[in-house]
Amino acid sequence: MPGYQPGWYHKMISDCVGEMMTGDLKRLIISLPPRHGKSELISRRLPAFLLGSNPKTSIIASSYSADLASRNNRDVQRIIDSSGFKALYPETKLNQGNSRTVAGSWLRNSDLFEIVGHGGVYRSAGVGGGITGMGGQWLIIDDPIKNREEADSPVYRQMVWDWYTSTFSTRQESGGRILIV
After folding, report:
1. Model pTM?
2. What are the angstrom distances between the C-alpha of 64 and each of 10, 13, 118?
3. Rounded Cα–Cα distance for residues 24 and 45 (Å)
4. What is the DSSP track for the chain?
5. C-alpha angle 123/127/73, rounded to 5°?
6. How confident is residue 101, by pLDDT bands cut at 50, 70 and 90?
7. Angle between helices 46-53 and 66-81 (to 10 degrees)
8. Which of 11, 10, 15 is nearest to 39 (CA)?
9. 35-71: per-residue pLDDT in tens?
10. End-to-end alpha-carbon separation of the chain, Å?
11. What are phi and psi of 172, to 5 degrees?
């Protein structure tokens, strides 16, 4: 990403994510103020890197809304479709058309995409949204709570916790990792 200017904390994040990739660290929470590059690193670049490094990787990514989760999904796809990515990871390819059906093609839409010929998959959903039916080696939540009003609401916080414990965390595959921003 030409022009990206990392700060010292990006190096720290990178080191911790590196520990997750080796399996030394299974869970990580990253907390920084808004506009400090957390989503760019964790929700956009990391999934593309993981799928490039291992096109069989399964990722479930979530955010406070389905719209934000879908936007991150599309951003990951744009990275994978870029010429620079293709030069680095020629084995990691997406279906060239938008496909919502399973019959005869690899899925590619703003909720789910698959890596052609390898079975890697990226599934996105909003907090509270449906992710049952699949597991993930990497489970990523970026901004589970939208704003201060929701953060101050015991009812909303309990809803997020219930979804996390009853749905999201149960999708973790053996040896999987959970990363929360």
Report:
1. 0.92
2. 23, 22, 30
3. 21
4. -TT----HHHHHHHHHHHHHHHTS--EEE----TTSSHHIIIIIIHHHHHHHH-TT-EEEEEESSHHHHHHHHHHHHHHHHSHHHHHH-TT--B-SS-B---TTS--BSSSEEEBTTT--EEEEEETTS--TT--EEEEEEE-SS-SHHHHT-HHHHHHHHHHIIIIIGGGEEEEEEEEE-
5. 35
6. low
7. 50
8. 10
9. 888 999 999 999 999 999 999 999 999 999 999 999 9
10. 21
11. -65, 125
Nearest to 142 by CA among 71, 81, 92: 71
The length of the chain in residues reads: 181
The two three-digit tokens of residue 176, written as one number: 């999987």
Q: Is the separation of the CB atoms in 136 and 171 below 8 Å?
A: yes
